[in-house]
Amino acid sequence: MGWVESIQKAIDYIEANLINADLTTYDIAKVANSSVFHFQRTFSILTDHTVSDYIRRRRLTLAAQDLISTDEKIIDLALKYGYETPEAFTKAFRKQHGVSPTEARKQIGTLQSYNRLIIQINLKGAIPMNYRIVEKDAFQVVGIKRTYNCQIGENTMGIPQFWEDAHIDGTNDQLFALNNGEINGVLGVCIVNADQKSKGLMDYWIATAHHGEVPKNLLSTKIPASKWAIFEVHGPMPHAMQDTWKKIFSEWFPSNPYEYTGTAELEVYTNGNPSNPDYYSEIWIPIK
């Protein structure tokens, strides 16, 4: 099953369980045969929504429809759509629709509808993507890592802060100085180990490829032997990287015979000014 089909199957599962269901990101990712981290990333790339935002907006859309078409009590609707109290429901409802549930029932103001998502991929192909396929043996990286709970979205805010900390404390400069391995640059490495998958956890490394002794203040790990699709990224961060990820999943995978293996994935940052319009970086995706 391709990524587009997997995401659509997951959306269908979400829609079937919006009412009176304890939806977890792990259960949704399982339907897509994916880890929580990889599912969340791909869902956001393809839809421009986080999983939790999509669920919340869809539930509040359905709640608004119930308010104007049924006589259900507001307290019952709050429980029906996953809110523990009418106050929490009212606060979320007003944030999305701009009116309270009571006002909506009286047909005061307008309502905002978020419709069910249907993934449609347009294979434009007008702007070429520069990539190469290579096979590499396992290699060592050294660096620092943090573990994030993707089910509650720790990675979304945590990873940018992690990079900022690495710049401030000098780790980023140390890694560039240590770089003598298979890849030139400092790496952002996403790894989901087998024992983490069911818990929605992932390890994120800021690291570099390095032969030799591991400095005392750093950790090391092996990147497994893989066949890699390596994509060139041209332009300032973070937009160039984000745009390339979107093209990979919305254009490249649907039009190529490769599948994503779900092992370690890499973002490669070269030693330059990431704000420059001609800054060069890469995305490495393990494929089969």
Automatic annotation (TrEMBL):
One of its GO terms (molecular function) is sequence-specific DNA binding. Keywords: DNA-binding, Transcription, Transcription regulation. The keyword Transport does not apply. It comes from the Bacteria. Residues 8-107 form the HTH araC/xylS-type domain. Signal peptide: none annotated. Pfam families: Cass2 (PF14526), HTH_18 (PF12833). InterPro entries: AraC_E-bd, Cass2, Homeodomain-like_sf, HTH_AraC, HTH_AraC-typ_CS, MarA-like, Reg_factor_effector_dom_sf, Tscrpt_reg_AraC-type_HTH. This is AraC family transcriptional regulator. It comes from Lysinibacillus composti.
